[in-house]
Amino acid sequence: MSDVISTEKKLSPAFKARWLEALRSGKYEQGRKMLKGPQGFCCLGVALDVIDSGQWMASGWGNRDDGYELPRYDMSDTSLLSRELGIDGPTCDKLACLNDGITEEERVDEEPARAPLTFAQIADWIEANL
Q1: What is the pTM of this model?
Q2: Distances (CA, A) of 42 to 18, 47, 92, 102
Q3: Residue 69: in which H helix or E strand, if any?
Q4: Are 88 and 8 in contact (CB under 8 A)?
Q5: Could you read off the pLDDT of 25-74 as tens digits, one per residue?
Q6: Are 113 and 103 in contact (CB under 8 A)?
């Protein structure tokens, strides 16, 4: 996939500025594989937190608290995330891959073949491409 991705909808300039500021702020620990988990946030989780930091709910199974949190709506499909952020599904997938250090062909549960981009590097990518 190309590094430049066209989006059907553009991020609003105000939201984009807030998201970039949050990614560069040092406030968020960076995690992998989940929007928000015990290790930290995915870059897309940071975006959702910027939209509404009160939206997270625990995702423990039964009586087990696994430490992961989910938005209060179903995120099993990137189209829902893309509608919330104003970017398309393939772009959301690309950002998740940049965050996790995997290619789009690799499975999410594999260890990354290369180092994930930092939040600051992801912010630079967003600034240049979205």
Answers
A1: 0.78
A2: 16, 9, 11, 13
A3: strand 69-71
A4: yes
A5: 999 999 988 888 888 999 999 998 998 887 777 765 444 456 666 665 44
A6: yes
